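<discrete_fold_record>
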Amino acid sequence: MPSSRKSKKKSMWNIEGIIFVIIALYILFSVFSYSRRETLRFYEVREGSLVREKQYTGLILREEKTYTAKDSGYVHFSVSEGRRVSKGGELYFIDETGNLEKYLQEHPELLGEFTEQQVEDIRLRLQDFSRSFQNNQFTGLYNLQGSLQSTLFFNAEEGENRLQKILSQLGIKYSIVNAEEAGIISYTLDGYEDFQKDKLNYNLFQNAQSTVSYIQNGVRVEAGNPLYKIISSSQWKLLFPLAEGDVKKMENVSTVSIHFPVNAMDLQGNFSVFRGEDGKMYGEIQLDDYLDYFLDSRFVSFSMQEKEQSGLKIPVSAVVNKDFYIVPKEFMKQGPDKSSGFYRQKADGSREFLSADIYMLDEQYCYLKIETNPSDTDIQGGNILVKESGNASFVVGPRKALEGVYDINRGYAIFHPIQIIEKNEDYLIVESHSKNGVSVYDHIVLQGDMVTDGQIIYQ
């Protein structure tokens, strides 16, 4: 009798132990599965907009005139690159012998001390240079060097007067040349200074480069050779080739917004279209500001904002493709209950009307969902659709993919087709009132390929 009780207790303990082990294994498996499962994230649909941009290369034209050296000798500019000079204002010195630069090197005390304004001017020049410098364009480096040399050459009026007096006593011969007109001074020459837009042709943009020469302080120049240019107006033009499609889209455009990636600058200008020497169509943008930022540029890359599109903004990662049956629109009819659907031919040759959930319509087709477990009242592959009268028929089978997203508002994934009106690398703008489409504040799966249609979603 005692041994019987002992056996019974041992048997009960074995059952309890087995149940405990099963529960423990289940918990461990659940924890392990959850830790390995990818996190499903959602995105709340909001209204937004995208700006479409197109890249161009343009030719810069200015009101500029090239001037030649008055005499032969070693040139020293007293006006920095990009600075304004008044008509008759002192512009540069010509040292016929070369002794001026040598004497300045031997007697740096003649240059005097920097003023606070001059130190600040040098600091700003270095900042501007660091923002716009590119490894493949060295003209800017020469411009900076010449600009600083001009700033350092005569850094105080007192030093300049004292220098002229001493040089006169030493018999060092030099001549001072004044500006013939007012404007912005530039020592960058590329041969396009006299170019006119009616000479424009597409070959100029094949290489989109110009041969640049830069006159530096202290070099010897010959009389009659190009030395500098003066830009007499702050207005400038940007000319660029247009594709046939661009001309049609922009025929009624008068103002455009453009972006220069080199210096991250955005400008607005008046836009017009003209015909070049080669008969092709070109765009012209008239600009009024920031000419000094492009003094050493002739060909420049920029983008132009073509159009801003508004609608529902969704991430590209949420978009997936889903197959649907396609049926020609002419087979779609309205049934007795005013619902849309199709006439299906029965085995005995008679016709029956079936209502259908048409996901989307385009110019040619109706898009019908492919049911995993279709019922007798669902249109499915192999069905013969006919018109209400006549002999025309269509066998259901051809498929076409629609782009769409999965919303999880109801706790399971529901596919919604979308109609894209604009996109970039990260986002899409879709129509907000399309049939079966998404709506504002819908929660959609951020990574669309992580779910399938009808999948239960635990948030």
